[in-house]
Amino acid sequence: MTVLETLLLLALAGTGGAVWWLRGRLAAATARHARELAEQRQQREQELRAQSERTAALFDRMVEGIIVVGPDGRIRISNRAAGALFHFPPPAAGRTVLEATRHHEVAALVARLDREAEVLNHELRLDGVAETRHLQVNALALRAADGARDGAILVFHDLTRLRQLESVRQEFVANVSHELRTPLSLIKSAAETLIDGGKNDPAVTTRFLEIIDKHANRLTLLIDDLLLLARLDSGRVELNLQPVDLRAAAQDALDDAAIIARARDVSLANSVPAGTVVPADPERLRQVLANLIDNAIKYGKEGGRVEIGGRGLGGAGAELTVRDDGPGIPGEAKARIFERFYRVDKARSREQGGTGLGLAIVKNVVQAHGGDVRVESTPGQGTEFFIFLPAKRNLA
Ligand code: ADP
Asked: What's the confidence (pLDDT) of residue 395?
C-alpha cells in the first residue's frame, strides 16, 4: 500500500467508504490474478501444442516405421514410414495389425509379445510385385503403470538397400574370382605342359610361353582396372584439372589406337571442332577416350569407321561423342553395359582381351569430372557414346 493510499484509508476510516474502497481493491486484484492465470494457461497450452506438433512431426519423419498397438491388438498410432513400408494409407488407428499390414508374420509377432517382453532383430521378408523388401523388426511389449499389459510397440528398419549392396558385393567378388581364375588356370596348364616335356619342342615352347605371356598380361590389365575402380569408388583419385583442348585430346587418343585400327582395317576420324576447351584431367580423359575407341574398333565392323565428334555447350561445358558403324548394342543390354563385368558377348570380349570393366571406368572417371556418359545404339547401324564434361569456374 502506498503512502497516499494509507492516508486515504485513514481519512475514510470509520466510514462505510473504507469497506467500499477495500472491496474495490480486492475485486481488481482478483480480476488481475484471474487474467494472469488465463494468460499463463494460454501460454502453457500453446507451448504444449507446439511441443506435441514437434513430436508428431518427428515421429512422422522418422526413417523407421513405427506401429504402436493397444492391448486389444488394434493400432493406436503409426507413422508415415510404416504406412509406406506396408502400403497402408493413414490413418491406420483402429485397424488390427493384420488389416493394416496384411502380413501374418507381423500379427504373429504382436501375439508373441503376450508371452515375451521383447522380440529383437527379427527379419521379415515382404515379397512385392515389383521387388522384395527386407525388414528388421524390433518389438517391445508395453506395460501400464499398474503392470498390466498395455499393447506393444514395433519398430521396422528397412534393410532392402543394405541387402542389395551386399548382393552386389557378393556378385562382384564372385566375378573377380572367376575373372582371375580363368587366366590363372590357362597359365598353369601351359606351364604344366612345358614341365611335362613340352619344353623339348621349341615350337611348343614358344606357343605355350606366348599363352603364359598373354594371360599374365590379361591378369595385369584386370588388376590395374580393379585397383583404379577401387580408387575411383573411394574418391581417392585426385583429378589434375586443367583446360584441355578436346580436338587435340581426341587426336592423341586416335593416334594411340592407330595400330589396332589398322589390324581391323578400321578408319579413324576426328571431327571435334577446333577451340573446344573444357577443364579436365588430360591423363584420365585419354583413358576414357582410349576405352571408347578401343571398344568401337573391337566391337565395330571390320573395315568400318570410328569417329570422334564434339560440340561446345556454351557456358555449360562440352560434349564428346565416339561413334562406330558396327552391329550396335541390343536394347536390353544398353542399360547394363556400364555395370562391372557386364558383357553382351562374354566369349567375344574375353577373346579380345577385355576385362569387362572398361565402361565402368569410363562412367566413374566422367562422373568424377562432374559429367555423365550415355549411349545410343540401333542394332545393325552402330553405336554412339556421348560424354558430357561440365565447365568449371575455378580451374586447378
Ligand atoms: P570389355 O572389356 O568387355 O570391352 P567394357 O566395359 O568396355 O568391357 O564393355 C562392356 C560390353 O559392352 C562389351 O563387352 C561389349 O559387349 C559392349 N560394347 C561396348 N562398346 C561397344 C560398341 N562400341 N559396340 C558394341 N558393343 C559394345
From this structure: 40
> Mean pLDDT throughout 288-304?
96
Residue in this structure with the C-alpha cell 562440352, named with its chain if needed: 318
Query: H or E segment at 382?
Result: strand 382-390
CATH topology of domain 161-237: Helix Hairpins (1.10.287)
**How many Å lie between the centroid of ligand 1 and the Cα of residue 110?**
52
Q: What is the pLDDT of residues 134-173, one digit of tens each?
A: 999 999 999 988 888 899 999 999 999 999 999 989 999 9
Name which residue leads in pLDDT, 347 or 210: 210
Fold exhibited by the domain 239-396: Heat Shock Protein 90 (3.30.565)
What letter represents residue 346's amino acid? K
Q: Output the CA torsion sign for 57, 58, 63, 67.
A: negative
Domain 61-158: CATH superfamily, name plus number: PAS domain (3.30.450.20)
- Residue 393: its pLDDT value, please? 44
The reply to whether ligand 1 has any atom less than 6 angstroms from the CB of 356 is: yes
Which ligand 1 atom lies nearest to the CA of residue 291? 7
> pLDDT, tens digit, for every residue of 319-337?
999 999 999 999 889 999 9
Nearest-CA residue for ligand 1 atom 3 is 356
CA 288 – ligand 1 centroid, Å: 13
What is the reported pTM? 0.72
Which residues, at least 6 apart from 333, have a Cβ–Cβ distance to it below 8 Å? 342, 344
The residues with which 127 forms a beta bridge, in sequence order, are 132
Indicate if ligand 1 lies below 6 Å from the C-beta of 321.
no
Q: Look at ligand 1, atom 7, and give the residue with the nearest C-alpha.
A: 358
Distance from the CA of 358 to the center of ligand 1, in angstroms?
8
Question: Which one of 90-99, 196-205, 207-216 scores highest in mean pLDDT?
Answer: 207-216
In this structure, the strands spanning 267-270 and 305-312 are parallel
The domain spans of the chain are 61-158, 161-237, 239-396
Cα(203)–Cα(183) distance, rounded to whole angstroms?
Answer: 22
Q: Which residues of 326-352 are buried (b: 16+ CB within 10 A; e: fewer)?
A: bbbbeeebbeebbbbbbbbeeeebbee
Query: What pLDDT score does 184 carry?
Result: 94
CA distances from 187 to 137, 177, 201, 202 (A): 50, 15, 18, 18
